[in-house]
Amino acid sequence: MDFDLWEPIYLQILDDFGFSREEDERAAIILSEILTDANSVGTPVLAELVQGKDVLICGNAPVLPDDLKLIDPKDYVIIAADGATAVLVDTGIIPDIIVTDLDGDIEKEIIANQKGAIAVVHAHGDNIDKLEKYVPRLKDIIGTTQSKPLNDIHNFGGFTDGDRCVYLAKEFNAASITIIGFDLEDTDVSPMKKKKLKWARWLIDEL
User: Fold this and answer.
1) pTM for this structure?
2) Are 192 and 18 in contact (CB under 8 A)?
3) Hey, how many other C-beta atoms are within 10 angstroms of the C-beta on 148?
């Protein structure tokens, strides 16, 4: 992702939600300080996993368990969007990659991470406390931000966990991207969530 292309979209998101760029960037710095050579990995790991592969992206909508019955997970590299990790773990599936801002079932994400899932941990202004609490319990971490990237904190594009999965798969040249467990028209959610789903749809459509 070329940040110069992403930045105008990011500024629109900040304006729409009233988020603070300064806090997003402070969170990225804090995540960078927590990451070490021992608990983090480089982006070539993602390239090796994703490039030229068929990727299955699992969102955490209530339809996910039913969607999983329609496909064979063994046919794909699996990327889980945050809370979807718990559903996968409970059905005996360990995702290859977890894209998370740490507001899902963290204990299930830690289990998946310990069993080999790469943890793509997202820093933003509202999860600094979770970064400090949970990142030290993870390994094989790649840090991300929605603002300007740092040397070890990346921006692959996207805003919500789900669409950031799609952007990651695109960034690392997946052969195909299949999306399940998404309900971008869900009306039984909070006004904030509705707005996030609207952005997720728009961002995915942009790809």
Assistant:
1) 0.95
2) no
3) 15
